[in-house]
Design goal:
The protein has 7 helices and 13 strands. By secondary structure, the protein is α+β, with helices and mostly antiparallel strands. It has 2 domains: 145 residues, no CATH class; 87 residues, Sandwich (Immunoglobulin-like), CATH 2.60.40.
Length: 287
């Protein structure tokens, strides 16, 4: 009993650490900025993901002596000038709205903050990219997140037990595969469909990094289960657990779906690199 308690504690620590790292480094997590005003450090968060049909609300909590302006353009850049949007005071916040985009559409934006016509902050050299998506029903998102977190947790339990040569690793290997099948291969595509209009954008259909890393983990646990069907095998649960830990540490939604505004198609994964490297002409040819 004591050993299992320690195993669960270790697995939980690793899972929480991985989830926290993924959340902080992911491209959908708000970007943190800070600057100094009259000797005081001011911290703000800039939105990088917007779901549903509403415009994206960019909010700042600033002193009334400051003036803020927002500039945006479509992303990837298509020889487009910046459009200026003023911030308006709403209650105790300054608010500017970015126009809603089709699912997987992106905008690039930066803010200028001045005090008495003197610049206090600007991120024009490092603008924020925000991606828009369709609304996902809360219950589907909750189930998906719960199943994926449970998958990571049980995968770590299986891996630790396998390292300890504990036969119970075999049972947890089966459980891990079941959780991943439901969370990643059933509810994952459902979330994707609501958000971006496609059930699956990984191999062989596309190169979406999130879908493909789920597919790799799923394949690793299928092998681990097969190797444990007739007798206990400790090697493959360890391999599968390490693969899962590594690939799920990759920030969620990195290099994810991006709308090709000229064709109306969605570009996935590393195909986006072609757009960035090749410019407008490659953007037209990708699909």
């Amino acid at each position: 009993m004591r050993k299992m308690i320690l195993v669960w504690i270790l697995a939980l620590i690793v899972t929480l650490g991985s989830a926290y790292y993924q959340r902080l480094t992911g491209p959908s997590h708000p970007k943190r900025i800070e600057f100094s005003v009259d000797g005081q450090i001011v911290k703000q968060k800039l939105l990088r993901s917007q779901g549903g049909k509403d415009d994206a609300k960019i909010t700042l909590k600033l002193d009334n002596s400051l003036v803020a302006e927002l500039y945006f353009r479509h992303y990837p850049i298509m020889n487009e000038d910046w459009t200026k949007v003023p911030f308006n005071k709403v209650d105790d916040e300054f608010v500017a709205l970015l126009p809603n985009q089709p699912p997987a559409g992106k905008l690039q934006y930066y803010i200028d903050i001045t005090q008495n016509e003197t610049s206090v902050f600007t991120n024009v050299e490092d603008p924020v990219v925000i991606r828009f998506k369709g609304a996902v029903p809360d219950w589907i998102l909750v189930v998906h997140i719960f199943l994926m977190f449970s998958t990571m947790l049980i995968a770590n339990v299986s891996g630790v037990l396998a390292v300890l040569k504990d036969n119970r690793a075999r049972v947890y290997t089966f459980i891990t595969l079941g959780l991943l099948a439901m969370g990643g291969m059933v509810f994952g595509p459902i979330v994707q469909k609501y958000a971006f209009g496609e059930f699956w954008t990984g191999i062989p259909k596309g190169w979406d990094l999130t879908d493909n890393k789920t597919l790799i983990a799923f394949g690793a646990w299928i092998i681990a289960v097969i190797m444990n069907l007739k007798k206990v095998n400790f090697t493959w649960p360890i391999i599968a657990a390490v693969i899962t830990l590594v690939i799920f540490a990759i920030p969620h939604s990195m290099f994810g779906s991006t709308l090709n505004r000229e064709t109306g198609d969605v570009i996935q994964g590393f195909v986006f690199f072609i757009v960035l490297l090749g410019g407008k002409e490659s953007f037209k040819r990708v699909n």
